[in-house]
Amino acid sequence: MIVQLSKAGARYNWQMQKIFALTGTTLALFGTANLLAPRAGEWTIGPIIRGKNYSVNMPLKPVPTRNGWSFDFPSPNRAAGHVHYVTFDPGVIENKSRIVVRYRVTAAPETKFVPQEQHFLPGTVSLVIQRQGDNWSARGRYEHYRWYSPSAAVQQITPGVHQMAVSLNDPRWTSVYGKAAGAHPADFREALENASRVGLVFGSTSGRGHGVFATSHASFELLNFEID
Fold it and tell me: b vs e for 44-71, b when ≥16 Cβ sit within 10 Å of the residue's Cβ?
């Protein structure tokens, strides 16, 4: 079943999932008819700013898989490239309550995931919400046009299957320079009401979307991404 959402004259197709024979706990976690993120072709690996893609040596789109999509991390060093943002246009999200993500990282145990800027920190993955009209300057009002998930929800990139669930009502979402949503509720609310991109960012605790590479072959597969 396909649900079409309208925003600014455009229509966004989201796939509805029907869940059968689930336990009460699972139903509480996932619901019975949640909106799922678009297919691989509707995601973009970027960001692209003034014509330049900052995810160096990465394809523009992830590769479709049976469950979702995947990409290979650039390796074995910074010169090989790095992945920064993987996002899509979510349509209307201001009445949603949380984002739930499930993903798999496949890599040899000795593989390290390295931020392309702060090499001494572990590579991380977290969430981003970007407001429509962001000019990427982070100056003036644009400081609050990108919001990153609370630090408690930032995950170090390691092999295995992982899940993150982040409330959209959490006042600890932070803008570009670390200002909390709780201290700027109107700015955060306007970002939710006018979101143009939502997705995953790769970097470190010092620079959430500043890019990551792997020291040997490794892949990232999105298994589930829901805004419910």
Answer: bbbbeeeeebbbbebeebbeeeeebbbb
